[in-house]
Structures are given as C-alpha cells and as structure tokens.
C-alpha cells in the first residue's frame, strides 16, 4: 500500500474502495489488515438531513436534545473511513453505502439537502437495492471496535458523525444527556479528535470559525473526489489532520478527546479483547 504523508494512497489507480452489501465481508477483512499499519481513523457520514432543526443560540443541552431526536429517527446514506497514522501517512479510504436511510415513513418531513445530494450524484435507488443493512454492518464491524486496533478517531465538527457511528455499532437510542453521551462514546470508541475544535487554538486558522473546505484551502490541502461524499470528506479530514499536526505547536492533551460543541471529553483507552477458543481450553485441568 502506498504511504504518502498528508496525501491519499493510490492503489491500482484508485484512492477509495466502494463498499456495498456484496463485498462488505472482504473489505472488512482488508481493513483489519491495514489497521495494523494505519491505526488512526478519519471519518465522515452523510445523512438525509434533519427532522428537527436546531435554532441558533440554544444551550448545549438543547442542541443535544435536537441531535438525539434526529439521530434516533434517521439513518445515514454513507460512512467514510480513511486510515492514517501518527506520522501523517495516509492509507486507504473506504466508502460504505447503506440501504435503510429512508426507512421512516415521514421522510418528506425531513429538512434536508435531498435535492442537493441528488445533484451531487447520489443514486438513492442503488442505495436501496445494493446498500448495506445496518444489522450486517454492525455484525461485521463491531469485532474491529472490540479488537482495540483503532487508536483514535478524527472528525471535523463531528458530533453528528460520532452519534451516527455509535448508533450503527452498538446502541438503539442516543443517551439522554450530553455527559452520558460522552461516557458511552469513550467506552465504545476510545479517543476522538475534532479538527474544528483543534483549530480553535490557532489564530491563523480563525480560532475554528471555518468549515472543512476553507480549512483545507488555508492549509493548501487539495481534495480528491467530490465534496459531500463520505469517502472524499473523510480523506480530506485525514489530510488536513496531517497538515495541522505539522503547523500547530499545541500540546495534544489540550484538544484530544473533545468534539466541537461538546463540553465533555471523549477519551479513553480500550485494551484489546482477547478471545479464547473454548475448544482449546475444554480439556484443560
């Protein structure tokens, strides 16, 4: 696999691997192998929109109540995962495509970017027919979470991204409070780093008052692929993270574990789970 600092790995002419129901198992196996060399995961999700919009100026808890309402009732179209490491080397990108994004009966009530996503090239019919079911994804991906292979998650303004990842892997309903959300996220995922929160410690990066596109432009990081597709966004997040680590002289302890907009840290060490084959211990005295 190519190893290029701050840039995408191009393997066989491709920078990402598209994952559908038919090839989920083989792609999960490949990811397990790659995580031994690239144990940090940059992520992004694409979802239909919002059933409840958050008014400006609300408290943290009011914002979280809107998130809880939306995430409990909606699902994602895509999950993008890009593997990287502490030295800024970037491995491969995976783009998982899901089928149950419109399973609720009142999708017409969703305040969303539906037409915008269609214009970007989302084919909802293919997602419905060939996409991965959440149950199958959970069954195949959860062993990776339990294995301890992932050292850290990287996001940009990633509160909704982390919430949907939690929903897709382990929980049915979001926790009822922000503090419980942070505790559960740390237990399930370990440590997260949010680049928007990280940028708050840099005057040059406008103290975090910017989007991913502008942040990448300021750091002279080029996008590969199309914006608002989860694979491209996760790759851009990984590339920006590599560049930020070079230019920012901030103690990682200050920003690691915090999501932008979440006052509680998501940080923890999850030791690898050792699975013992009962056949090997059955006759042990």
TrEMBL record:
SUPFAM superfamilies, alphabetized: Ribonuclease H-like
Compartmental location: Cytoplasm; Nucleus
GO CC term, one of those recorded: cytoplasm
Gene3D superfamilies: Ribonuclease H-like superfamily/Ribonuclease H
Cofactor (UniProt): a divalent metal cation
Coiled coil: none
Source organism superkingdom: Eukaryota
Reaction(s) catalysed by this chain's protein: Exonucleolytic cleavage of poly(A) to 5'-AMP
InterPro entries named in the record: CNOT7/CNOT8/Pop2, RNase_CAF1, RNaseH-like_sf, RNaseH_sf
One term of GO molecular function: RNA binding
Entry keyword Metal-binding: yes
Keyword Cytoplasm applies: yes
Alphabetical keyword list: Cytoplasm, Exonuclease, Hydrolase, Metal-binding, Nuclease, Nucleus, RNA-binding, Transcription, Transcription regulation
EC number(s) from the headed UniProt entry: 3.1.13.4
Job of this protein: Ubiquitous transcription factor required for a diverse set of processes. It is a component of the CCR4 complex involved in the control of gene expression.
Membership in a protein family: Belongs to the CAF1 family.
Known partners and oligomeric status: Component of the CCR4-NOT complex, at least composed of CRR4 and CAF1 proteins.
Name of this chain's protein: poly(A)-specific ribonuclease
Gene for this chain: LOC111467090
């Amino acid at each position: 696999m190519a190893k290029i600092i701050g840039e995408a790995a191009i393997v066989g002419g491709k920078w990402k691997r598209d994952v559908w129901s038919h090839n989920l198992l083989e792609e999960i196996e490949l990811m397990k192998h790659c995580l031994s060399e690239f144990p940090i995961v940059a992520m992004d999700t694409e979802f239909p929109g919002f059933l409840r919009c958050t008014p400006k100026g609300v408290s943290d808890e009011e914002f979280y109540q809107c998130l809880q309402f939306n995430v409990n009732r909606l699902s994602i179209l895509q999950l993008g995962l890009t593997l990287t490491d502490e030295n800024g080397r970037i491995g491969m990108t995976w783009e998982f495509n899901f089928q149950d994004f419109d399973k609720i009966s009142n999708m017409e009530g969703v305040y969303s970017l539906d037409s915008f996503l269609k214009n970007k090239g989302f084919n909802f019919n293919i997602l419905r027919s060939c996409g991965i079911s959440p149950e199958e994804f959970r069954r195949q991906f959860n062993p990776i979470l339990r294995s301890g292979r992932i050292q850290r998650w990287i996001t940009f303004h990633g509160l909704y991204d982390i919430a949907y990842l939690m929903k897709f892997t382990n929980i049915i309903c979001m926790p009822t409070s922000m503090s419980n959300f942070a505790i559960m996220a740390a237990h399930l995922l370990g440590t997260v780093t949010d680049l928007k929160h990280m940028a708050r410690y840099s005057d040059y990066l406008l103290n975090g008052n910017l989007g991913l596109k502008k942040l990448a432009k300021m750091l002279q990081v080029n996008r590969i692929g199309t914006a608002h597709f989860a694979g491209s966004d996760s790759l851009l997040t990984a590339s920006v993270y590599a560049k930020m680590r070079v230019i920012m002289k901030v103690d990682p302890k200050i920003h690691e574990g915090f999501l932008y907009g979440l006052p509680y840290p998501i940080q923890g060490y999850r030791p690898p789970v050792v699975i013992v084959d009962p056949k090997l211990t059955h006759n042990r005295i």
